[in-house]
Design a protein that fits this description.
The protein is an all-beta fold and about 120 residues long. Helices cover about 0% and strands about 55% of the residues.
């Protein structure tokens, strides 16, 4: 299975960060229970953002819940992340991943750098 993140690499403060993960070689509705977003920064290390399940249920990190939305496009085997009201502290490498036993992620995308700056 392969995962590929896509989206803008630069986002202005107060705007919404939007990323999409395209999955090939496996279905997000039948093969994997959790479709997951994770980010990494030097300051915070790895941070689990949240997930969407094979049936469409969602769960979010308590610290990010008020600003996060994860959705999916089953026809294109994609899932997406929206993080609103971003600040420079949201800068980091964002990964999408798949797994069956959250928070364990079995398959990872290569990651995409997102910088929040004017």
């Amino acid at each position: 299975v392969q995962l590929q993140e896509s989206g803008p690499g630069l986002v202005k403060p107060s705007q919404t960060l939007s990323l999409t993960c395209t999955v090939s070689g496996g279905s997000i509705t039948t093969n994997y229970y959790y479709s997951i977003w994770i980010r990494q920064s030097p300051e915070k290390g790895l941070e689990w953002i949240g997930y969407i399940t094979y049936s469409g249920g969602t769960g979010y990190s308590p610290s990010l819940k008020s600003r996060t939305s994860i959705s999916r496009d089953t026809s294109n085997n994609q899932f997406s992340l929206q993080l609103s009201s971003v600040t420079p502290e949201d800068t980091g490498v964002y990964y999408c991943a798949l797994g069956n036993n959250y928070p364990k992620a079995d398959y990872w995308g290569q990651g995409t750098q997102v910088t929040v700056s004017l």
